[in-house]
Amino acid sequence: MDLRSVKSNIIKVSMIGISLLVLAYFIILEIIVLYEAGLVNIVTSIKDLEILSSLLLSLFTATISSLLSMLLIIPLGYLYMKDNRKVNRLSDGIFSSINSVPPIVLGLSILILFGKHYLGGFFSSVGMKILFTKFAIVIAQVAVVLPMGYVEFSNCLRNVDDKYILTAKGYGADDLFIYMRIILPEIFQSIKSIVLLMWAKAIGHFGAVVMVVGVTSFKTEVLPSTVFLNISCGDLDKSLAAGAIMIIISNIISILMLKGRRSK
């Protein structure tokens, strides 16, 4: 065996070893919380009113924000399919930029925008309060998950086979018909996966949410807030239980997404 072959084998073994270590690290990160929480603690914690309240609020707001985000992404997708390069570059630039902004900074922006000096003053004049309400949780979650969902959605649109579009145009179909009746049904499985991805992101999000609603038990406390609040108060068991529930939910979503990809 020559020196080149020895070097090649060393590199191959190193690459495999590093890959296994990285995979093991992230597996341990999930398992350690589940192990430390314990099955009994996880089951009994669901009966805890604080955790149950934050779980139900998390499920509710994540569902609303992910569905609302997709409803907003679909018109953006139509604009994207118009194939105006300048508009598409602008949209891609905006959402790529927002994806790079730390969520807590997005929360700060929302806090200012809906404060009394801007939109908050208008809403107050008509008897509406936005900040520190459940509605603010949805606004914060949408601000975080919609840009991510848009990037995934635009990638799906790029992968649509042009022959479907060209055939439809050959029969005289307009852009809206092609988008609504051909493209969206074609990528429907991907749309479901994107909604699940946004839902999982929303239910585990903390940064922007805590900026606009704080952490008020039984009112604006979501599961990530429960983890933070209880670890701050020294209640490790409750914090571990809330974290374990989030890990279980995340893994269920991952399984559903993998099944969706295989069924395409």
Describe the structure.
The structure is a single chain. With 264 residues, the chain is an all-alpha fold. It has two domains: 1-37; 42-262, MetI-like fold (Orthogonal Bundle). It contains 13 helices and no strands. Helix 5 (103-113) runs parallel beside helix 11 (207-213).
SS-derived structural category = mainly alpha
Fold-level CATH name of the largest domain: MetI-like fold
Distance between the termini: 46 Å
Shape: globular
Broad CATH class of the largest domain:
Mainly Alpha
What's the helix and strand layout?
Layout: H1 3-37, H2 39-45, H3 49-81, H4 85-100, H5 103-113, H6 119-125, H7 134-158, H8 162-170, H9 175-186, H10 188-203, H11 207-213, H12 223-232, H13 236-262
Helix pairs in contact: 1-13, 2-13, 3-7, 3-10, 4-7, 5-7, 5-11, 7-10, 7-11, 8-9, 10-13, 12-13
Features:
mainly alpha, 81% helix, 264 residues, 13 helices, 2 domains, MetI-like fold
Briefly characterize the structure.
The chain is an all-alpha fold.
